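Q: Start with the shorter request: fold the first protein.
A: Done. Sequence, then structure:
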Amino acid sequence: MKTVVIILFGFITGVQAVFGQNQDVITLGEQIVITSHILNEERTCLISFPDTYTNTSKEFPIIILLDGYAHFKITSGIVHFMGSQRSRNNFMPESIVVAIENIDRERDFTVTKINTKRPNTMGGGKNFLKFIENELVPYIDNHYRTTPTRTLIGHSLGGLLTLNSYLDENSLFDAYISIDPSVWWDKEMMKERVDTITPSSSNKKLYIATANHGETGNIKNKQRHDLLYELLSKQTEEAQNVNHEYFESEDHHSVLLLALYNGLKYINQPR
């Protein structure tokens, strides 16, 4: 594996602070490039560190974020706010955010293929999870000060992959945030997997957010998510480990902001 470190400029808005003729640079994080032997390609990740990372010897939990480039700034901002020692919020521990940039979402976030008239690369999700668990996380653990506490966050197709990771009894994650997951992709497969859920999955925390898809799509979307939650609740002895929240006023895109905040707050509540 080779690593390229690039400083990212700007804060949550990406704006540099300029006062008179002096320019101050606020560093949001680092960019690394990892050569994956599992995927046979290089993958770029953006990393955000807690405020206290540089002036303490503490170790920190890690959050693996899918759709990294699109969601890196907003997620880093929320995580910083919720775990800020300066603001004394203490909603969650200070954490390291590792955001994976996309190459092929359809390939990486799906574990099955669906029939299409066009050629497609679907169904590579299991390999992508292997990359995360066998290459990316060990790399992060070896190069940064981390604890074994790990959270996976995904939206849309990324939310679908997050669910598939949760249902994998060998998954190394401790908590999962699945934001408006695309369970329509293979709802029968999802039902089969829920039916065979093991205690290693049901003892972990899962937060599912559902958005309002409007008059034409909302009934089916909400029904699928309601059914998924119902199936999980029946299979999970510790029902309080799974939380499902419907955002009537938010669509598929706007739901991300509130779901990140509420999801992080939920998975960090004491059991």
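Q: Next, the second protein, separately.
A: Sequence, then structure:
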Amino acid sequence: MARTRSKGGPASTSADKTASTTAKAASTSTYTLPAESTNPPKLFVLPKNTSSSARIITLENPRYGNPTRYLVCPETGSFYEFTKAAPPNKSTPRSWLLSSEKSEKEPALESQTIQSPDLYLATPYDPLFLLLPALFKSSSNSKSDNQQRQYLSLDDYLDLIPNTDRHFSEILTLPNSRIEKVLEARLASVCDLVEMGDDKMYRPNESKLSTIILSKASKMAENLPPSMEEKFIKKALEAPVMGVVKDQPPPPPPPPPTTSTSSPEETASPSASESQSTVTTSSGTTPSTAVTTPATEEAPEPAFAPAITASPATISLQRLRTSLNFILSSYLPPFLSKTVLSSLPSETFTELEEYLTKLSKLRTEAAASRNIDINGGKRARDEDDDERLEKKRKMEQEEKVKKANTSRGVKQLAKVNTAGMMKLSAFFKKA
């Protein structure tokens, strides 16, 4: 008996394979996004010379008193603060796409996207600022309190630093830690030192602190950012223009007119005929050329200069003061900033103060003269408007009087349409 095969058998098998392949492709092309994290990661840029034992600790900010995170490397004894760099335009959406190259030692990490465009940079930080609130207390402002300060050890000052999370004490106990030696060196720079056997005792000194802060400001003033240079140096010292003309050499006098005589052959040339004039005299006609050089040079416009100009020494002092104010307002407690300013020599910014006093007077005079010009011009315009209105009022009043004296018949005749009619004077013309 011959075997029979149902129609469509192989076709149905191929259709099943195609359907299964499509389903697998659809399943592999579909990707479900994970839920948004409540604590998304942040991007930090750390220095290269930090060791694997570096830690991020939380300490009280010496300026504002709020908990702040710092990066500490125990092996090098270095402290770093985190500076946030954010894009200026927050309305434009930005993000970070992070990926790493695959190497033989370390496998490649998975790529990830960070939604926040902020960047945190670890910049060097002087640990002396962390010790200042413990060294100088706000209650010790008078000279008697300063004289009664006692010599204390480093451990005594460290106990006075607020350390609620115990991060600082844990960093000090790590093996191969150089933090204690670094803190001792920083204490010695602003304190009076007394050695008692193996122990070292410290007492804070305001004059030493002022010297350290002033040296930091001097170093910062050598290379200010362009934004601070433009806003706090150039604009702060720029004087108004008071119509002072710069000393310029007088313009050279115009050359005298020159007369040159040319031959008849030169006169016949087209180029010479355009610049020559023929003069007829009693002895005959002789071609003579009188070429004159007109004085076409315009007088130079007067160049105005500021009323006063800051000297290089004044500009340097302004940079120093700007840097000093930045350090005091960013890293020192408010009460200690006043102490540092009062400890500075009185003649430090004398030249700068004299220039700023003159500049303030000039700005006041310029503002007053500008107000006078504006008010004077406005007053002149008001007088012209009043005169124009007065003339208009008089003309309207004359027209009203004229209309009131006109008779009724004249008014009716004025309303008659005279288009196409001959005037009365046309009948009295000569034939």
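Q: Describe the second briefly.
A: Residues 304-402 form one domain. Residues 260-291 have pLDDT under 50 and may be disordered.
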